[in-house]
Design brief:
The structure is a single chain. The protein has about 180 residues and is of the alpha/beta class. The chain has 5 helices and 7 strands. It has a 7-stranded mixed beta sheet, with helices on one face. α4 packs parallel to α5. The radius of gyration is 15 Å and the shape is globular.
Length: about 180
Amino acid sequence: MRIIAGRWRGSRLQVADAPGLRPTADRVRETLFNWLMPYLPGATVLDAFAGTGALGLEAASRGAAQVLLAEEQPRLAQYLQQQVDRLEGAGEIVRVIQGDTLALLPRLAQQGQKFDIAFVDPPFANSLWDRVWPALLPLMNADALLYVEMPQQAPAPLFPADWQLHREVATREVLGRLYRRA
């Protein structure tokens, strides 16, 4: 895997061998970040289930002001920190937090944290999508964007009426949906 564009364009990202880890395909990432380009400069970004960190690190490379990589597995969180340390200047933009995302989100809300863009791509086997929305959506700014990646056959998330499907990308196995707060 590699960072596609921006400050660290072409930088290789090592992918750890971990059960359930499924990196977002280069083609899907490229499409997603083409959609996000007007919104990334200066944005505050959450990669809620970071895994490889490819989505959050790509956002940082392309101009996001702050990126939070949340990862539950200690080994993957350590691995993410190594990736951040390896990319020149990334430590000023990217922060890695190890812990359960569902427990982390209420703590971020108590701290007054808000995000412009969030990536929600949890391990498919855990089916966490509907459990994460109540805690995540209050953390999103008024004009926020939310990218959700799920299995092709999964039902569309049920969001409040002020969230609308903006764009969609599909592969044989994965469906990526970008939602926008109206």
